């Protein structure tokens, strides 16, 4: 009975860990996405700033395209749905979705927080790293 109980416990732990691994969503900056560090064919989060002048609305009223930048690289995003009220060009954004074979990130969700100065911590860190990388290239 003890061996059976341990086996059942091990199986339950394996199922929980497997479910956790499948639902884990990683965050990537545009520079990381364009350096092929982001997974292909899997859902992940893309974060940075909405590039000024890049927001375009389609005729259906729900589909929008915009660019997400970390000040070093830019990734085009396509989203169908209602955007958060505080979504604006030049502000921080985190989009969840998949990168298509054409290099366009197809978002299933666009996330924002109710603070006009909001910058997701991961996006702020990614932008700092991109700025440091850009400075080191310029100084060389």
Summary, kept brief:
The chain has 140 residues and is an alpha+beta fold. It has helices at residues 2-23, 30-34, 121-139; strands spanning 27-28, 44-50, 56-57, 63-69, 74-80, 92-99, 105-111. It is built from 3 helices and 7 strands; from the N terminus they run αβαββββββα.
Q: What is the 3D form?
A: globular
CATH names the topology as OB fold (Dihydrolipoamide Acetyltransferase, E2P)
Q: Tell me how many strands there are.
A: 7
CATH homology superfamily name: Nucleic acid-binding proteins
N-end to C-end Cα span: 68 Å
Largest sheet, strands/sense/barrel: 5 strands, mixed, barrel
Rounded to the nearest angstrom, the radius of gyration is 19 Å
The run of helices and strands is: HEHEEEEEEH
Report the structural category.
alpha+beta
Fraction of residues in β-strands: 25-35%
Q: Summarize model confidence as the mean pLDDT.
A: 84
Give structural notes.
It is a single chain. This protein is of the alpha+beta class. Helices cover 33% and strands 29% of the residues. It has a single domain (25-139), classed as OB fold (Dihydrolipoamide Acetyltransferase, E2P) (Beta Barrel), CATH 2.40.50. It has a 5-stranded mixed beta barrel with strand order 2-4-5-7-6. A hairpin with a 4-residue loop joins strand 4 and strand 5. The protein is globular and about 65 Å long.
